[in-house]
């Protein structure tokens, strides 16, 4: 795909997302769709009470619109043979990934809407979210299967075992974990947006190296859209992406990786997300195990120990007196390193 179309699409997404904040943020303030902060987070987060949520609509609209514009420009410029079966198949795969991302976002929107209306930081319960995510993940895999992706191997970098039918439940669990990991990263001003700019730029290169031009286009518009959103989301944030945005990004990131069959490469590119979510798993497990041991010794309940001062781990660093800017910079640099390693693996191995 010509560089002028790729860069033009990214800039279009950036401009649409950035300019859209001039209209969306005042509207969200007008209808009082603001964030409610619970007491369980860092105390200074209380100052963010009332900050508009659902800012994720900025990069959602920006990335989708820019992808459509870029794709049409590419087709009009003669970049693909309209009579070729592969052209139609690739277009449908692109549409599938976009629709999956938007449907995942709808789960987050429902969650944000309940929070905004009820003025509490708890929207859909965990079972409702999980059930919807499992259904959508299975639908994505089913659609890709219908489009001809019937391979059941998992790329473990130096080994590709065939899991047969077991591949599908494993991938459903994988998609749910990755998408929720992205969601958990949205806890510090600018963190999820900045890390996603880095990860989507890496995905742009990886998709291009695998000749996935259409998916590469979508990845770079996601990077551009997030960059435009950061105008409003860097500390101090004027709006939050909300679950509307983080679930959209999580769905898009997971779908791009699955559609390109980049299993462990997806984990490597998204290592910031993966470790942030894993810190929650470690914290909960360690607390439950130590609480049970304490109960057996003393008969007292709820006296477990913690590994981190708070999870996800970005909150731990906040409580270690790291500024929000420092967390964003360090996490993003780590994400950049992981992305370069993933690209290096494809290029040199």
Short description:
By secondary structure, the protein is mainly alpha-helical. Helices cover 71% and strands 0% of the residues.
Model description:
With 349 residues, the chain is mainly α. The chain has one domain (3-264). The protein has 12 helices and no strands. The mean pLDDT is 91.
State the helix count: 12
Give the termini distance in whole angstroms. Answer: 24 Å
The total count of strands amounts to: 0
Strand content: under 5%
* Coarse structural class: mainly alpha
Largest sheet: none
Topology diagram in text:
Blueprint: H1 3-30, H2 57-76, H3 85-118, H4 126-146, H5 167-185, H6 191-209, H7 213-233, H8 242-259, H9 263-269, H10 271-298, H11 313-319, H12 324-348
What key phrases describe this protein's structure?
349 residues; mainly alpha; 12 helices; 71% helix; globular
